[in-house]
Structures are given as structure tokens and as C-alpha cells.
Automatic annotation (TrEMBL):
It comes from the Bacteria. Signal peptide: none annotated. Pathway: Amino-acid degradation; L-proline degradation into L-glutamate; L-glutamate from L-proline: step 1/2. The keyword S-adenosyl-L-methionine does not apply. This is proline dehydrogenase. Its EC number is 1.5.5.2. Keywords: FAD, Flavoprotein, Nucleotide-binding, Oxidoreductase, Proline metabolism. It is an enzyme of class 1 (oxidoreductase). FAD binds at residues 135, 165, 189-191, 203, 228-229.
């Protein structure tokens, strides 16, 4: 087993420890979480989005939360997401919204979740905005795609989008099907711990599949959100875009809040459209754990802040 895979498994194992979760619930925002999460309140998040917009950066807002098992909690999440669209409109923000279906009740009942997602997509359309459905672990992939396709038929790719993960072996087949519908797709590597029968474990395989997925989608004339901080991949795709004369309104680069900020600004200066995935809310622990697991440098950042306490 390669060291990076072992480290990722170790981080997830430690993160599941109840004592560790209690510690981060108490001290997390003081020792590093604030780098990756804009704020716990929507009001303070608005200020963060304004700052990003002022730098020429667009935003997608993610109200944190996942794996909800209570209907009331799912409905609370829907209400907050609808409030987020109001805040975008009221403050004139250059932003849209990303959502996770397990936060909206996918683990409870797919029909219930689909109804919640319908409310959100309707709001996005009515406000002239957009919602992207995040992809979660592989156990939710088929259900997520089913709900997305039903929404795509009604709202169109102008108002709803989806995510595909290059670590999953099924993703090229999914991308081919999505291409036939003209879907707006964000391509990510994937940050969930997956079994080897469904996911590539070698980084070079994940990276190679990433490039293939983006090229395939762009070649089909579809919109691709290129979500990566990997400068080698970005460089190869910039070359492909130039060589194929891909229109500037057919793609954007996306990166995470608090990561590779200089690269974000550099791409904006080069004339590219860049969107920052900006999470907010108090249920940040699972998101934060994945950021640590996918990039060890983030762990050292947190440890340094911990030692300063």
C-alpha cells in the first residue's frame, strides 16, 4: 500500500474517533478550520463572498451538512439553501449554490429528497440562478444521477448541474451519457474513501481519467467546470483548450476556498473564469476531514496552529 493511501486511511480512522470530533467541535475554528470554511453564519459568509468577487472570483456556496437521517433536519437545510439564494440576490453577489443530496434526505427516502431538490431547483430558476448537485460517496452515485436527470429534463443545464469523480471506474460511462443530455458537469478527483473494486487507487490513474473526462466533455460541446488545484493537469487542459479553440463560455476553473489562492488569482489575471467553492455553516467536520485527508499539507497547517495555542 502506498504511503499516501495509508495516510488517507489513517486520517479517516482518526477522524471517526468521538474524542477527536469533540475536540474539533470545540477548538476547530481556532486552529485551522477557518481557512477552509468561510464562516458559520450566512451573514459573515456574504462578506467573504464580496471579498472574493472583488478579486474577480466567482463563487459557489455550500451550506455544510450531509448524511442527514432526520426529516426535520433535511427541511431545515432546504430552508437555509433558499435563504442563501435570497442573500445572493439581495447583496448582488456573483455566486450560485452547490448541494449534497444526503443533506436533503437521500438516506431517508429518495422521493422525499427529490421533492426537496425540486424546491431548490425551482428557486434557482425563478431567481435566474443555478444549483449544482455535489457527488458524494459511491453508494449514492446512482441515486444522485437519477435525481439529477429528472431535474435536467425539467430545468435544463442552465439551472442545474452535476459532479463526476475521476477516481470512480464508472465515471467515463456516466460522462458519455451526461454528454448526450448536454449536462453542465464539474469534474473532480474525489475525496471519499472508496473500495478498490469501484475506484482507482493509484494517483496516476485518477489523474489520467480526470483529463480524459474533461476532454471528452469539452469535445462534445458541453460545459465543464474543471475543479482541481493540480497545476500539471491545469496546464495540460489549458493547452487542449487553446489547441481546440474551446470557447471561453464553455468552461471554468474551480477551486476550494482557502486553497491555492494565488493560483486562483493568476488564472483570473490570465483571463480565465474561476469559481471558488465556498462552504459555510456549523456542520463542517466531515468536509474539513476530507480536506485534510486529500492533501497532507493541510494537516501540517492545522498542527502548526495547534502548537501555537
Amino acid at each position: 500500500m502506498k504511503w499516501d493511501v495509508l495516510l488517507k486511511k489513517t486520517i479517516f480512522a482518526v477522524a471517526d474517533n468521538a474524542a477527536m470530533q469533540r475536540f474539533f467541535d470545540k477548538y476547530g475554528m481556532q486552529i485551522g478550520v477557518q481557512r477552509f470554511v468561510a464562516a458559520e453564519s450566512l451573514e459573515k459568509t456574504v462578506a467573504a463572498v464580496k471579498s472574493l468577487n472583488a478579486q474577480g472570483l466567482e463563487v459557489t456556496l455550500d451550506y455544510l451538512g450531509e448524511s442527514v437521517t432526520d426529516r426535520e433536519a433535511a427541511l431545515e437545510a432546504v430552508d437555509m439553501i433558499l435563504q442563501t439564494y435570497d442573500a445572493i440576490r439581495d447583496h448582488g453577489l456573483n455566486a450560485n449554490v452547490s448541494v449534497k443530496l444526503t443533506q436533503l434526505g437521500l438516506r431517508i427516502d429518495q422521493t422525499f429528497c427529490a421533492a426537496n431538490m425540486d424546491r431548490i431547483a425551482s428557486c434557482a430558476r425563478n431567481k435566474g440562478n443555478f444549483v449544482r448537485i455535489d457527488m458524494e460517496d459511491s453508494t449514492a452515485t446512482s441515486q444522485t444521477l437519477a435525481i439529477y436527470k429528472s431535474l435536467l429534463n425539467r430545468f435544463g443545464s442552465r439551472h442545474v448541474g452535476i459532479v463526476i469523480q475521476s477516481c470512480l471506474k464508472r465515471s467515463m460511462a456516466d460522462m458519455r451519457e451526461l454528454g448526450r443530455f448536454g449536462a453542465n458537469v464539474r469534474v473532480v478527483k474525489g475525496a471519499y474513501q472508496e473500495p478498490p473494486d469501484v475506484a482507482y487507487k493509484d494517483k496516476k490513474d485518477v489523474d489520467a481519467n480526470y483529463i480524459k473526462l474533461v476532454k471528452h466533455h469539452l469535445a462534445g460541446g458541453c460545459y465543464a467546470a474543471i475543479a482541481t488545484h493540480d497545476q500539471a493537469i491545469i496546464g495540460r487542459l489549458k493547452t487542449y483548450i487553446t489547441e481546440r479553440s474551446i470557447a471561453e463560455d464553455q468552461f471554468e476553473f474551480q477551486m476550494l476556498y482557502g486553497i491555492a489562492s494565488q493560483l486562483q488569482k493568476q488564472l483570473v489575471q490570465e483571463g480565465f473564469r474561476v469559481r471558488v467553492y465556498t462552504p459555510f455553516g456549523s456542520r463542517w467536520y466531515p468536509y474539513f476531514t476530507r480536506r485534510i485527508a486529500e492533501r497532507p499539507a493541510n494537516l501540517w497547517f492545522v498542527l502548526k496552529n495547534l502548537l501555537r495555542r
